[in-house]
Amino acid sequence: MTLLLIFTGLMAGVFVYHHVIYPRLITVLGKRYGVQTQPDADTEKPRIGVMICAHNEQAFIAQKLFNLSALDYPADKFEIQLVLDGCTDKTEQEASRAIRQLHMQNICVQVHKFEHNRGKIAGVNYLIAEFKHQYDVLVFTDVSAIMSVDAMSRLALHFSDPLIGVVSGIYQFYQQEQGCQQAYWHYQNKLKMAESKLGAVIGVPGAMCAIRSELVQPIPQSAINDDFILAMQALCEGHRAIVDASLHIVEMETDDQAADFARRARIGAGNFQQIFILRHLMSSKNVWLSFNFLSHKVLRGLMPLVVIAAIITMALAAIIENHLFAQGCLVALGACLLVGGIKKCCGVSKVIPVVDQVNYVLLSYAVAFMGIVKFCLGGFKQPWRRVNQTQAVTNQVSEGHRMVKSIKRSIDIVGALAGILLTSPIMLLAMIAIKLDSKGSVFYQQLRVGQADEHFVELFYVYKFRSMFIDAESRSGAVWATKGDPRITRVGRFLRKTRIDELPQFINVLKGEMSLIGPRPERPVFYNELETNIPYFSLRTYGIKPGISGLAQVMNGYDENMEDVKRKIGWDYAYALALTSPKQWLSMELMIIAKTIRIVLLGKGQ
């Protein structure tokens, strides 16, 4: 067995342990070593402070306050602290209407208004600093989540046990999730219940989390998954975290696809970040907490990297070492992705068990990987925003565009890394051939125009294998290449026909200057002429990175004159429009990739 297959096997083993072995193991351990809480019903009911941060929550704020007023708990034993975080909609008016009714029920609600949106972490930390010492228990809850009527009473009962530090409930959606998403949440709730028997639940839903007040600590301002870190920080001294199966938390809001992808990317980045922020939990006084944190959250944070590494090494074993088992696994994986892509493009809703599960897992980890990359590049620093239903409809196109661009960038990074690894033998042969064929360097750098926006147009140097004689433009100046161009070397002609000369551009992709698929990057020296003869020519790269291949390139080939550029501009606009719809983009992306492969194999370049 080769090193590549051994590494792939190790990664697969980590994947199986995290998803299959650990859930079963923790269930067995919970039954054998589980600790029962020791509630004391005779103790005085604790004073509870309900902490809420709201930003543009007009659709849910009144419903939330009415839900809290209906809870079965003495009105003199709990108070509501509400932060209005720079709301620009009617949240304040809706809240005021509901608060008047709560005051008639002798329920205390205090409103803290921020003029500008500071973000959820700032709001929560403000409430912790101001009110931590006024209550025995702090309940942090989302505006869009409602709780069962006995929630407060059940929380009070659990906190009568001094060893309990954190309590939450079963998280569910008002609009029932379907298919793989439903299975995922069923899996998560079942796993948390198993961990709860050991008093070591790893992560509780931000929709409702109750913490003993003296254990509450401010959330680091840089935290991404703030809810998770808030709860886990409270367990540093060995207290227990449990989930009450009879305490129901219902999420009233359902994310659209774009918001769901954004949430997954953020969670993926947060899972990776909290490995470092909460690393001290690996040596907690609660041994089960350390074990669960390592097996559950640390591996979950690393799992996108594990999956990507496994796929890349398996591909290398299949291509370089010609290993039959790796080839079979790669074909099976490719078949699942192809069938899933066809289902998505054609709008097929029929469930295909194995295919759907494989696609769901890979897509989830691909988006999580995208989140990790964004985090490592300094992303996720903006305050939280809620998009209400009206805004969601208004911004549907832009949200779809942002989602596609985020996924596209993640695919660019993975694709460029894989491309460099897989084509390295071809690039090595190309470099040798270039050196033997003509004088000059192997690589060639040329200034190109990149992505543009309202305030900035990027210029960058594109990397290519040299396909022309050295100083080819010293006499002619900058001119388009033509068929039979005498400036092109013998080896260069082959490189251009097979597009091998473009392979070094994987480096531009990794640097973020280019994408795998996009409009052709044009030379600045031609820009004045092109913009004069073709109105709005510069808009073809507005908000879009140029690509190694693209719709215009595969449909129209290399540019030889102004007419070729005019014909290609329509293809560039068509591709830009497709980016606003995930379905259209995926369909077009697959078509471009297929045509690019055909051009390379048949030598249809110029």
What report would you give on this structure?
This protein is of the alpha/beta class and 606 residues long. It is built from 20 helices and twelve strands. The strands form three sheets. It has an eight-stranded mixed sheet, with helices on both faces. A two-stranded antiparallel sheet has the order 9-10. The protein is elongated and about 95 Å long. The protein starts with a helix and ends with a helix.
Oligomer: single chain
Structural class: alpha/beta
User: Tally of extended strands?
Assistant: 12
Largest beta sheet: what is the strand line-up?
A: 3-2-1-4-7-6-8-5
* Principal-axes shape call: elongated
Mean pLDDT over all positions: 84
User: How helix-rich are the residues, as a percent range?
Assistant: 40-55%
Question: Helical segment tally?
Answer: 20
Give the terminus-to-terminus CA distance.
43 Å
Q: Largest sheet at a glance?
A: 8 strands, mixed
Q: Cα-atom Rg, whole angstroms?
A: 29 Å
Strand content: 5-15%
Poorly predicted regions are: 387-397
Provide a short characterization of the protein structure.
With 606 residues, this protein is α/β, with parallel strands linked by helices. The protein is 53% helix and 14% strand.
Which characteristics define this entry?
single chain, 606 residues, alpha/beta, 8-stranded mixed beta sheet, two-stranded antiparallel ribbon, 20 helices, 53% helix
Architecture blueprint of SSEs:
Layout: H1 3-33, E1 48-54, H2 61-69, E2 78-85, H3 91-104, E3 108-114, H4 120-131, E4 137-141, E5 145-147, H5 151-158, E6 164-173, H6 179-196, E7 208-212, H7 226-233, E8 240-251, H8 257-277, H9 287-319, H10 324-346, H11 353-376, H12 389-394, H13 396-437, E9 443-452, E10 457-465, H14 473-476, H15 490-498, H16 505-510, E11 515-517, H17 524-533, E12 547-549, H18 551-556, H19 562-578, H20 582-602
Parallel strand pairs: 1-2, 1-4, 2-3, 6-8, 11-12
Antiparallel strand pairs: 4-7, 5-8, 6-7, 9-10
Helix pairs in contact: 1-6, 1-9, 2-3, 8-9, 8-11, 8-13, 9-10, 9-11, 9-13, 10-11, 10-20, 11-13, 13-15
